[in-house]
Here is the input.
Amino acid sequence: MSVAPATPEVEATEAPPPPINSMRGMVTDPAVRNYLIAGFAALAMIFLLMLSNNSDIGGLLLALLGAAGMLFRKPAAPSFFLLILLYFLVFPFGVPDEPIRSSFELRKGHFRVADVLLAFSVLVYLACHYRIYVITANGLPYEMRRYNRHARRPTYLVRTGEIPRFLQIAGVVVIVAQFAWLLATNVDADPEASFPFHIAEESELYGRRERGEMSLWQLRLLVLFGIGFFGILLARLVFGYWRLRLMTAPEGALAVQEADWSETHRERVRIEKWREWQKAREKKKADAKENS
Here is the structure.
């Protein structure tokens, strides 16, 4: 009785995961999927807030543009998003008419629930868009891809709880911005007083000022510029150092690589131009030698 030879069992191999820069790969990867969900939630909130402001067309345009920008990884989408948002905030119906100039909007235009939610949602969408772009498209400038094809941000660098921490930071930033707007729209300066700053009266918002006194819009601009410049400088120093202390080895390598590109970009471009010129010259000489 002959026994048939045992056939080796074929091991079942799992299919490789789809590339991260494809639509399926973005949906299946947990890190990108979480940012997609957060970005879509922010866009839905922006649409509802614009709809409550009688700007249904603007809300629909913003939602479609933001969703397409995240799905197709377009780096220019946030710029157009902010321009469209600014336009429909000034002209809610989309028709360019004269905006209503109200002192009430200046005095009471802070810490309103709709404005706080809108600013928070816009900040969340912008962060999610750029996070998705860095992970799926390119995290470093284009020139680096000639020497390092994997210039994206690795997904394992997306730590657990990164999105909740970012939401907390975004909320703090929005509240600080509301306080800055409160100071800029309600505080007036009188250099002759013992204490130069005081709460502006209702008549001082658009009333005529005496010669030599700073108008209130100039003071608002000065306060916003001062708070923005010194606040960003201080935050950059504190949180930049904090980020360097918490940076892992792969993140540090990417940061050093980006700094190297920023400092030597012009020289590398010049060298590459000379290399291309030399290659074209050698090819021309080789073609001329073959023809002869």
User: Anything to note?
Assistant: The mean pLDDT is 80. Strands lie at 187-189, 197-199.
